[in-house]
Amino acid sequence: MKKIHYILLFALGIPVWLNGQTVLTLEEAIAKTLENNFDIRIAKNELKIDETNVTVGNAGMLPRINGAITNNNTVLNIDQTFANGEEVEIDGARNINMNYGVGIEWTIFDGFRMFARHNQLRELQNLAETELKLAILTKVSAVYQTYFTLSTQQQQLKMIDSIISVSEFRLNTAKNRFAIGKAAKLEVLNAEVDLNADVSTKIQLVEQYGLAKVMLNELLVQPLDTDFKVTDVIVIDKSLLLPALIADAEKQNPQLQVQYINKKIQEFEVKQVKSSRYPIVSLSGGYNLIRSQTPFGFVTESTGRNFNYGFTASLNLFDGFNQNRNEKVAKIQLENTQLQIERQAQQIQSQVASLYQSYLSNIALVELERKNEAIAKQNLDITLEKFKIGSIAPIEFRTAQENYGNAVIRLTTAELITKQTEINLKELTGSLSF
């Protein structure tokens, strides 16, 4: 119902989208996205997990100490006959055996696997940091795109408002001319049809504007019906150069950086596989307390303490050639990561080159459409003055209206497409400001 209410207000020509609304700046929109967006928050938590996992203990460098206690109790009914003929009968005899202590195991050498694992954990942390940057770039880029879409739609709404005002003037003029007998009914009907067409166009623009607002509210993680307006100015960066863009993409593109880190992770995986060729040396030790109590036999109660220590060394002598197979597989996987890097780099270069061609074409198109818009506006102003004094036909006046409206739409659309291309280029090169 709220949406229908807005549409009716727009249809009546009341510019509610200009009044009583807070201006949301691009900087505010980006700040809210960085703070609230779910994907970015999830990526931050994933980074915290990987940061927490980077420890020497997780890499297997520290000893493992265990404490244990065992308490076994037995209740017996027993009859005993000794060699001297003496007989003993015990009911409910309770036998207690208790063992408790601590033990330690420490692998002091495992073929350098623990060191490779620790370095791999660090690279996993770097991977999470890069994936966080990728998530931020993706969402900030979406905010840029949606924000400037709203800017374009606001400019188009202003244009259609002015078109509707002129169409209303034309309709009132036609009615007055018809009332005094200087115009036919057909002129009134044509003016009314054209006005309705303009209002219909505005309703469609309002719908698109409302949908874009919902999208931006979703990115900012705020109530979807939050009302605001954006700035209308779209500034295009015309200083981008292809060689610099490609160089930046090779250094900063997050997707390419992910592939580089994956290669390092696989290199440490190869080292861990190779470590199985070396012996494993472990130290062990323990301290235990033993207590036993029984109501029958020669010894009814005993306690003991013991300390044990030693080491274990093991070496894989033959495992059915599985070690060779595992190493070959790991090396092939490492080769694949290099191929993925080269493929990703080529794709990014291709995307940058293609977008740059569109960027140059769209800049030229914006300049042309800006001139066309100025000409169309001048033509509309002149035509309106002639229409006021009755020296031009209504159909010629309508043509001037349509030409101006189309010129504004082409110009604003060209500016939006150019800005979107610029944003995509900066996203690919990892240089998008946030």
Automatic annotation (TrEMBL):
Give the record's keywords alphabetically.
Cell outer membrane, Coiled coil, Membrane, Transmembrane, Transmembrane beta strand, Transport
InterPro entries linked = OMP_efflux, TolC-like
* Main subcellular localisation: membrane
Q: Does the keyword Cytoplasm apply?
A: no
- Keyword Transmembrane: yes or no? yes
Its annotated compartments are: Cell outer membrane
Task: Give the domain of life.
Answer: Bacteria
GO CC aspect terms: cell outer membrane; efflux pump complex
Q: Which GO terms describe its molecular function?
A: efflux transmembrane transporter activity; porin activity
Stretches of the chain forming a coiled coil according to its record? 322-351
Q: Which Gene3D superfamilies match?
A: Outer membrane efflux proteins (OEP)
The entry sums up its family as follows: Belongs to the outer membrane factor (OMF) (TC 1.B.17) family.
Name of the protein in its database record:
Membrane protein
- Taxonomic source organism: Flavobacterium orientale
